[in-house]
Amino acid sequence: MGDDWAKAAEEQEAKDLVDKVCNLKLPQTEEDGVSPEKQTAPNEVSPEESVTAADLSLMRKAMRKGIVECKNNVEVYRKDPKNPLFCVKTFEELNLRKELLEGIYDMGFKLPSKIQEISLPTLLADPPANMIAQSQSGTGKTAAFTLAMLSRIDSSKKCCQALCLSPTMELALQTLDCVKQMGKKCTDITIRSAVKGNSVPRGQKIMEHIVIGTPGKVVDWVTKYKCLDLRLCKVFVLDEADVMIATQGHQDQSVRIHKQLPEKCQMMLFSATYDDEVVNFAEAIITDPVVLRLRREEETLTNIRQMYVECRSQDEKYEAISNIYSIPVGSAMFFCHTKQNANWLATRLKEDGHQVALLTGDLTPDERVRVLLRFREGSERVLICTNVLARGIDVDTVNLVVNYDLPHVYGSGKADCETYLHRIGRTGRFGKTGNAINIVDGQDDLRLLREIEQHFNIKIVKLDYNNIDEIEKLGED
């Protein structure tokens, strides 16, 4: 009877915590990635792409070759301001086991990134400290919590001691690859995934030290099949928390998993953004955390030369693009307003013998990643895309952005100045000079261009696309 009462009480506590999170009224989107504000009237056809927050996160991770050099400082917030936070400048200062140190260097890390300098001493401290960290992709956060998980493992105990949740299978497998690489010389530590397609034989218990998976699969293994016991788990990592919040059902599942963890389990939450929704979600499940914030590098127009070419027909527009293609730049991105335009432009350029890549929302996540990797490695010099890539995808070799279609707010005919900033912000990154060329076709486009000039208080200069000498000068910087 006592056991039944205790079980009922535990289930009620879990339900109360789930209700607390659900009552936060966090914005949710279905798995297809179409948010309510993006829905259009029945008779309208929106040009916007249906790409989930998780898909965007996966694409950003795919484009990262190494650590992003961020000029902003890490902001630290903590409950006890008298408790000192330590900072390290080398990995040796962390007193790691030899095999882990070798794994770090084998992965190409030489010195800790900004977020690692402050987070690692806190994550590896004894007693363990809970942490909420906000930083953009590419700043070293995955390596930071991977190192923390590997460092906490007692290999003599055959049970799950570290659990990491990611919003999708693709993101979980990327994290799994990072953990395996860093821990490849720690042969006494075992690792496994908990994603779609993985199964556990009936009656068998999971004995691996580190489990990396998605909320749905982990919930099943913990509560339905009871093959994953979290009572001895030392570290819980909730990665991509902002993506979790944007995916319906993940909040509820994450809270239910959290309820199965021991009270002294170290909690870590990582997010690319830190708005009110993420703050409320984090505070509902993590007590007394140290909070680190590394602000994203702001996009700016100061080091981007902005030009436009004026065309009178679709043929002239294509002729301008063909001449622009000949600019001797590292890499270029051509933005179209709809996937139909992107498909047409890519097909036409390929027919004329040009090497171009195409990325739209019609591709699967795996296909998008393959396209991006080929572009990053230089297999194709030009990437034709829609607004899928307008935000947060950085390639350091991109020094030309072309707006084949000027961005406008759907249904209003007004210039979409925010999207314009994000589009041309794909060039001129990391302190380099960038070029942005806008293709203007008719009076409506000219009006949009003037709106953009007025909004940013800038002058966009006219470029003669038939003057090859003038065009070639753009590739000299």
From TrEMBL:
Q: Where is the Helicase C-terminal domain?
A: 303-471
Q: Which Pfam families match?
A: DEAD (PF00270), Helicase_C (PF00271)
Q: Where is this motif: Q motif?
A: 89-117
- Give a yes or no for keyword Transferase in this entry: no
Q: Where is this region: Disordered?
A: 26-50
User: Could you tell me the keywords of this UniProt record?
Assistant: ATP-binding, Helicase, Hydrolase, Nucleotide-binding, RNA-binding
* InterPro entries tied to this protein: DEAD/DEAH_box_helicase_dom (IPR011545), Helicase_ATP-bd (IPR014001), Helicase_C-like (IPR001650), RNA_helicase_DEAD_Q_motif (IPR014014)
Catalytic activity reads: ATP + H2O = ADP + phosphate + H(+)
Q: What GO MF annotations does this protein's record show? A: ATP binding; hydrolase activity; RNA binding; RNA helicase activity
DEAD-box RNA helicase Q domain residues: 89-117
Q: Classify the source by domain of life.
A: Eukaryota
- Keyword ATP-binding listed? The answer is yes
Residue ranges occupied by any Helicase ATP-binding domain in the UniProt entry? 122-292
According to its UniProt record, the EC number is: 3.6.4.13
Question: What CDD domains does the database record attribute to this sequence?
Answer: SF2_C_DEAD (cd18787)
- Provide the protein name: RNA helicase
What is the phylogenetic placement of the source species in the record? Answer: Eukaryota, Metazoa, Ecdysozoa, Arthropoda, Crustacea
